[in-house]
Task: inverse folding
């Protein structure tokens, strides 16, 4: 039996109570949602928070609501709810696809979208798709609320701009322009229970089905301390007429945008090569979806 | 083949219901009143002198009942083979790997025990750490064991025929080097045990083990308790695959602390501790030189093998022999030279794992044979068929293939996979590959030098009702031995499986060397068959007296007495039976005399009916050094065809289809045989594509988890088309021989050969990760 | 400081005092003596600890007992109904889907949960739904076949 260290556990009954509690705990408290990352690390001994705060009783964190053509997703919505949601699947298939890649069905039934964001793991499955979709985060604090872009949220492995006394309440996904398509590919060793060796989310917006690319987002993950834009690839795509050659060119440029390391899961050189392959493939799929989508679909 | 009533069927396993409902009790499920929980202190360093161990703070912690080190455990050395007893319960002078046991604690709960462990202070003086064969064998390298300067844990040199001479007749001579990686058993149930030393000085150890017998002997020897006062019982076991076939320090520590405290002590491995304990597959490096004549006759083989053994010997002394002896067959090979070296390193100890020393060697050799076949412009299946041994042939190292359905296996997979339509005709990126293999059906000799029977079995009929209690020390670890031993008993006695209750895995029931070297179907099966026949004879003898019919004119089958000549008048016996059972609703009736009645008569006239069986193999094998390892009463064999798709842009391999044919002699339970085939193949797929244990520069296991040590998931494993070949083994009970380990042999090379067929790349290092294959394809493109 | 939790397990209500750091696996095994739920790794890598929590199969080793306050849990002990096995249990037994049995409780729970949502799953859907449950013994094939046969039997 793998034991957890000792800690105190609280279930505040409202968001203000929770925020006051976290503020008072001054960093000694962590929110526990699905626990599939936090409890694993506590068992391994890498973290040992003195207090775990559960927002089980706090309302307003568990809905997927339509909002101005996009979505507002509560931070405690589980990854399997996202993967199985028809709404999400038809409006933002890339997000449903990313969600269905995470861990295993058992993990997905507990892991939350909020947890997958705030744990700030470089290989997390939802952030690349969310960044590509232009997601924003609603953060609430005891004295101050703010809404910030997910893009720029991560500052390094395990760290973000979020304060320990803040709570992520909702993730806002704006509506997508017409003729937008997106794709996410995760490369792992096995077909389940994997942390990505490399993953890529790409999104393309065309001005018309047979037109040019007006917006390109290529998000690379597991090849830098955080998920990043393949900036030069995005530049190479914008304003161009889509073609397989263009995508191949953008993919090879994307390789220079990343700085992968060699670790247990893969070597740096291989990761660079896989950025090439995955960018090319996600762009192709994103393009095919974009062509077919009149009402914004990503 | 003869028609049988109980065997060769698909009867559900006798323990399946208990497992399906959650009633089955594994070692970690056991508890007793007053039980203490044990925890282990293990070395954080890979190689260091122990200067001092201070347990005073640990002992003072409230709730702690015992703290033990080598001072309490003693210095008796143990291991697997007496020729290499190099382990102690706890380290005394030094630690030799990260995970080496230094002390243990028994306390009122696990949290307290673990806290106490953290309070034990050990002063170490670090020593140079040797993490690979090169450093361990280097001039001037520190000796990990004083008695083994140069760190050669074992060395084998064998030659059969004359390799150098034979090469002169060979048209093609090819040398390849092949290496796999250290693996882990990957069984779902971590080791666990409960030890109870009672007030009469009798010790009972319940443990997740593959061999109650070997554990019993080790516990008795190490702790100085008479064997007769040590009982080892195996509860349900959640897989073993080799690493659980010998005693571990946790079992010894729990027994010791129970003896000292007078309380039951329970200890359980965490998953990380499973990796630190290891005793799993070695890393093998084989340099193989094969010579083939112009007409495609395989004529000479030189095999030089280096094993990275880890810090102690465990089964490694057998591994180093198997790494040589398990090549040659199933092909005719008159000239074979083998040089093997097992090297100590400062890493967890390696031992035996499914297929033992044969898996890596097989993988390298079967790939090399494919290369040679291609050079000869021969189809790989035809090349193998041409060289195939036949039933009755003897290998150059004296293995007698008393039954060998190898041709049938190979033709079976060739036809079953539609090889002819696919080989050479698949689009680029898709490939098909074939390989063969064989394995022992039980080690010919026990791991300790002895004249002991390898398996005993006792059958005790109930005094009423015709119930059959089978007692065996054989270990059901998930492979299905309880079921097939019950079936063998039922068939040989003439009753149904429902009438038999199997009691197994307890040293109080007899001697059985346990579940390793794929031995139980043949060896335990023989003992059980003998016991059943002995029981039958006793019942018939009693009937013979009562009915005045000679024993040889009677038999028992399907629960009734069979009279080969005229049926006698047995009404007197029935009347007696009915009179004794006034009030019973189901009195015997009908024309047949039932076994129920006959068993009752036997008891009344003779007393308790007990049948005994005991098996040891006859004289086996050659007279050369090491002949004992690999010699066996029988050999299972198999062939496999694998089809793959390679994603050339990522290097990912998808296994599309597998066709497997295994000659198990005779299938006692057809579902069980298929299950062992499919399970073996899934382990082979894992070892081929994903599995390796990795270390950092300080000798710490980097991936001691099932998340980072990757065994196949349900999405990684394809369906396997299974073909059972039954060659009717004369040395096996009802013709049966092994399937549990042999089936894995062709898997890795069939995958390797299929990958070559798909993308033209030869991989000589496992696992074939997408990264490794991608790099190899990239390299090939440059040329 | 222990917390008092109330939860329903296999249709029976329990009230248990648990320390915050007690996992649901521990509470089921040590407090309720339901030993069918196993611990294979403790970190969500293997699925041996699978239970159904509020209708969804989860790794109980990654659920705090306190988080299960107010929940409805089903363990392997709650699958059979009044002495008769669930069709999934029957097919597992009959078709060789059980070898060592350690992964079996988790497999059966994931399978019954799947069949409730998807009564006639394809082979791929079965493999996908059970992909969080590792097995080292069977190679998975007979498990998949048993789940599909159970779905056929449950049709009528």
Result:
């Amino acid at each position: 039996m793998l034991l957890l260290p000792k800690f105190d556990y609280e279930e505040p009954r409202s968001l203000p109570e929770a925020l006051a509690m976290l503020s008072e705990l001054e960093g000694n408290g962590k929110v526990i949602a699905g626990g599939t990352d936090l409890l694993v690390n506590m068992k391994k001994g890498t973290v040992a928070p003195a207090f775990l705060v559960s927002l089980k009783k706090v309302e307003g964190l568990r809905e997927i609501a339509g909002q101005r053509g996009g979505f507002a997703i509560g931070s405690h919505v589980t990854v399997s709810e996202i993967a199985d949601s028809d709404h999400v699947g038809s409006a933002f298939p890339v997000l449903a696809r990313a969600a269905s890649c995470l861990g295993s069905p058992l993990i997905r039934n507990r892991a939350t979208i909020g947890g997958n964001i705030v744990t700030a793991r470089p290989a997390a499955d939802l952030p690349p798709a969310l960044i590509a979709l232009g997601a924003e985060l609603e953060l609430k604090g005891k004295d101050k609320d703010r809404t910030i872009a997910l893009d720029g949220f991560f500052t390094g492995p395990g760290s973000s701009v979020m304060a320990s006394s803040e709570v992520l309440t909702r993730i806002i996904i704006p509506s997508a322009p017409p003729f937008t398509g997106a794709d996410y590919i995760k490369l792992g060793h096995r077909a389940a229970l994997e942390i990505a060796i490399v993953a890529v989310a790409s999104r393309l917006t065309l001005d018309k089905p047979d037109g040019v690319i007006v917006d390109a987002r290529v998000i690379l993950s597991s090849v830098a301390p955080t998920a990043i834009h393949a900036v030069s690839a995005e530049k190479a795509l914008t304003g161009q007429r889509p073609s397989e050659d263009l995508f191949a060119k953008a993919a090879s440029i994307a390789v220079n945008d990343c700085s992968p390391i060699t670790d247990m899961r893969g070597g740096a050189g291989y990761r660079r090569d896989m950025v090439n392959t995955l960018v090319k493939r996600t762009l192709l799929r994103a393009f095919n979806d974009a062509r077919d989508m009149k009402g914004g679909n990503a | 083949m003869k028609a049988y009533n109980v065997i060769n069927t698909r009867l559900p396993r006798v323990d399946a219901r208990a497992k399906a409902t959650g009633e089955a009790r594994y070692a970690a499920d056991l508890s007793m009143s007053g039980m203490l929980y044990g925890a282990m202190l293990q070395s954080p360093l890979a190689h260091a002198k122990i200067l001092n161990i201070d347990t005073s703070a640990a002992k003072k912690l409230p709730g702690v009942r015992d703290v033990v080190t080598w001072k309490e455990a003693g210095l008796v050395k143990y291991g697997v083979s007496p020729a290499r007893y190099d382990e102690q319960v706890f380290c005394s002078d030094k630690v030799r790997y990260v995970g080496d046991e230094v002390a243990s604690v028994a306390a009122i709960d696990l949290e307290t025990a673990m806290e106490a462990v953290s309070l034990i202070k050990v002063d170490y003086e670090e020593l140079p750490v040797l993490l690979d064969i090169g450093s361990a064998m280097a001039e001037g390298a520190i000796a990990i064991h004083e008695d083994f300067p140069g760190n050669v844990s074992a060395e084998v040199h064998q030659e059969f025929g004359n390799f150098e001479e034979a090469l002169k007749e060979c048209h093609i001579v090819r040398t390849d080097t092949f290496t796999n990686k250290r693996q882990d058993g990957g069984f779902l149930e971590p080791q666990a045990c409960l030890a109870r030393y009672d007030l009469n000085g009798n010790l009972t150890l319940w443990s997740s083990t593959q061999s109650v017998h070997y554990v019993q002997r080790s516990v008795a020897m190490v702790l100085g308790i008479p064997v007769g006062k040590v009982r080892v019982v195996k509860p349900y076991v959640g897989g073993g695959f080799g690493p659980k076939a010998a005693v571990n320090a946790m079992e010894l520590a729990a027994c010791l602390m129970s003896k000292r405290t007078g309380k039951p002590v329970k200890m359980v491995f965490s998953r990380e501790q499973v990796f630190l304990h290891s005793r799993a597959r070695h890393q093998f490096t084989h340099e193989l030189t094969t010579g083939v004549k112009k007409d495609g006759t395989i004529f000479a083989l030189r095999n030089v093998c280096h094993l990275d053994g880890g810090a102690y010997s465990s089964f490694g002394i057998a591994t180093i022999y198997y790494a040589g002896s398990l090549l040659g067959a199933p092909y005719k090979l008159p000239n074979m030279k083998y040089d093997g070296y097992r090297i100590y390193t400062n890493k967890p100890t390696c031992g035996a794992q499914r297929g033992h020393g044969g898996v890596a060697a097989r993988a390298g050799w079967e790939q090399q044979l494919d290369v040679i076949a291609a050079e000869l412009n021969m189809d790989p299946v035809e090349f193998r068929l041409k060289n195939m041994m036949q039933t009755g042939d003897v290998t150059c190292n004296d293995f007698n293939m008393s039954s060998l359905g190898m041709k049938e296996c190979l033709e079976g997979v060739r036809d079953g996979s539609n090889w002819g339509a696919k080989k050479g005709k698949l689009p680029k990126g898709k490939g098909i590959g074939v390989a063969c293999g064989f394995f022992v059906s039980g080690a010919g000799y026990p791991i300790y030098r002895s004249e002991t029977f390898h398996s005993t079995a006792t059958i005790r009929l109930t005094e009423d009702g015709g119930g059959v209690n089978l007692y065996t020390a054989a270990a059901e670890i998930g492979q299905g031995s309880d079921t097939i031993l019950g079936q063998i008993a039922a068939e040989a006695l003439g009753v149904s499986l429902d009438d038999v209750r199997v009691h197994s895995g307890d040293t109080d029931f007899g001697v059985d060397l346990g579940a390793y070297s794929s031995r139980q179907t043949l060896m335990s099966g023989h003992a059980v068959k003998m016991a059943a026949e002995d029981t039958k004879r006793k019942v018939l003898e009693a009937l013979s007296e009562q009915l005045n019919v000679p024993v040889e004119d009677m038999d028992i089958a399907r629960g009734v007495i069979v009279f080969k000549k005229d049926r006698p008048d047995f009404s007197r016996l029935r009347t007696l039976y009915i009179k004794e059972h006034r009030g019973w609703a189901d009195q015997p009736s009908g024309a047949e005399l039932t076994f129920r009645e006959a068993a009752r008569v036997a008891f009344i006239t003779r007393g308790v009916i007990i049948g005994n069986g005991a098996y040891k193999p006859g004289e086996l094998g050659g007279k050369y050094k090491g002949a004992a390892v690999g010699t066996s009463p029988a050999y299972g064999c198999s062939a496999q065809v694998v089809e793959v798709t390679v994603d050339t842009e990522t290097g990912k391999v998808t296994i599309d289809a597998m066709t497997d044919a295994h000659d198990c002699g005779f299938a006692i339970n057809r579902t069980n045989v298929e299950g062992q085939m499919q399970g073996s193949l899934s382990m082979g797929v894992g070892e081929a594509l994903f599995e390796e244990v990795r270390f950092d520069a300080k000798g710490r296991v980097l991936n001691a988890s099932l998340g980072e040590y990757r065994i196949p998931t349900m999405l990684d494993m394809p369906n396997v088309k299974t073909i059972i070949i039954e060659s009717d083994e004369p040395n096996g009970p009802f013709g049966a021989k092994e399937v549990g380990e042999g089936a894995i042999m062709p898997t890795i090379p069939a995958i390797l050969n299929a990958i070559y067929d798909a993308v033209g790349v030869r991989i000589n290092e496992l696992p074939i990760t997408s990264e490794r294959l991608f790099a190899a394809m990239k390299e090939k493109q440059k040329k | 400081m222990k917390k008092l939790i109330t939860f329903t397990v296999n249709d029976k209500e329990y009230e248990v005092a648990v320390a915050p750091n007690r996992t649901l696996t521990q509470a089921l095994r040590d407090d309720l003596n339901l030993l069918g739920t196993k611990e294979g790794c403790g970190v969500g890598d293997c699925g041996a600890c699978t239970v159904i929590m509020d209708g969804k199969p989860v790794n109980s080793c990654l659920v705090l007992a306190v988080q299960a306050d107010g929940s409805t849990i089903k363990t392997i002990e709650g699958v059979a109904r009044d002495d008769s096995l669930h069709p999934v249990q029957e097919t597992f037994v009959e078709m060789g889907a059980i070898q060592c049995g350690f992964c079996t409780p988790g497999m059966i729970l994931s399978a019954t949960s799947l069949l409730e949502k998807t009564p006639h799953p394809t082979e791929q859907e079965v493999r996908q739904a059970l992909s969080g449950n590792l097995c080292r013994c069977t190679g998975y094939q007979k498990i998949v076949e048993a789940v599909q046969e159970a779905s056929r039997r449950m049709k009528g």
Summary: The mean pLDDT of chain A is 96. The CA atoms of residues 161 and 288 of chain A lie 36 Å apart. The first helix of chain A runs from residue 15 to 25.
